[in-house]
Write a structure and sequence with these properties.
The protein has about 230 residues and is mainly α. It has two domains: about 1-55, Arc Repressor Mutant, subunit A, CATH 1.10.10; about 55-225, Tetracycline Repressor, domain 2 (Orthogonal Bundle), CATH 1.10.357. About 70% of the residues lie in helices and about 0% in strands. It has eleven helices and no strands. The protein has helices at about 1-30, 35-40, 45-50, 55-80, 85-100, 105-110, 125-150, 160-165, 170-175, 180-200, 210-225. Helix 1 (about 1-30) crosses helix 2 (about 35-40), helix 1 packs across helix 4 (about 55-80) and helix 5 (about 85-100) packs antiparallel against helix 7 (about 125-150). The longest helix has 27 residues, at about 1-30. The protein is globular, with a radius of gyration of 20 Å. The chain starts with a helix and ends with a helix.
């Protein structure tokens, strides 16, 4: 019992540290996160803080996972209000955009660095990587239902696409989809994330000051292609 209480106290302190880091992030962006400033604000010594996070990278990794899970919770809540798989996927995409618009610095944090370092042949699981996969799977369930309900065969893949899809997490997608479905999922994913990223970082201001209709058009085009 004492050990459990100690673990709960440790996790509560780590959550307080993450909350302090998130406040810095919200105020100044990813570059504003500072272990020394967090220690000062919490009334801890730097040495005491390092007992919970041994580096800034470790804290940022944990914060990324925490923010990914917050985003996933919101996406799932919106998704599960949809009456059909198509509605569920549409609402999940909209929830993704809404969260990003409300939390631009958090979006920049979780999307700024690769989740997986492919320079290493053996990829170790990380909190951020695991959280990112949970986020991805929130979209995969309705996507898979729509894909398998198709009544026409998909367009053939460009030569080399199937062979190129060999990343460390592709197998998780292959458990639910054929390789053509995996390719379409990734194409849709890059299109969705790309549209949101361009909006968040202001790369569409030259064209419009109201991006939502453009996003909705993009989304409906993607969904239409999925059901054709």
């Amino acid at each position: 019992m004492a050990t459990n209480r100690r673990e709960r106290q440790r996790e509560a302190t780590k959550q307080e540290i993450r909350d302090a880091a998130r406040a810095q992030l919200t105020e100044g962006g990813p570059g504003a996160i500072s272990l020394r400033a967090i220690a000062r604000d919490m009334g801890l010594t730097a040495a005491a803080l390092y007992r919970y996070y041994d580096s800034l990278d470790a804290l940022v990794e944990d914060l990324c996972a925490d923010r990914y899970d917050a985003l996933t919770t919101e996406v799932l809540a919106a998704r599960d209000n949809g009456a059909t798989p198509l509605d569920q996927l549409r609402e999940a995409c909209r929830a993704y955009r809404r969260w990003a618009l409300r939390n631009p610095h958090e979006y920049a944090l979780i999307c700024g660095e690769p989740v997986i370092d492919t320079m290493h042949t053996h990829v170790e699981p990380t909190p951020k990587g695991d959280a990112a996969m949970r986020f991805t799977l929130a979209f995969l369930e309705p996507f898979t239902a729509i894909w398998h309900a198709r009544t026409t065969p998909p367009q053939p893949l460009v030569p080399g696409v199937a062979e190129a899809l060999s990343g460390p997490n592709v197998e998780a997608l292959r458990q639910a989809l054929p390789i053509e479905g995996v390719a379409f999922f990734l194409i849709g994913w890059t299109r969705l994330a790309g549209a949101i990223t361009m909006e968040i970082f202001g790369h569409l201001r030259w064209a419009t000051d109201d991006v939502e209709p453009l996003f909705e058009q993009n989304l409906e085009d993607m969904l239409r292609q999925l059901t054709m």
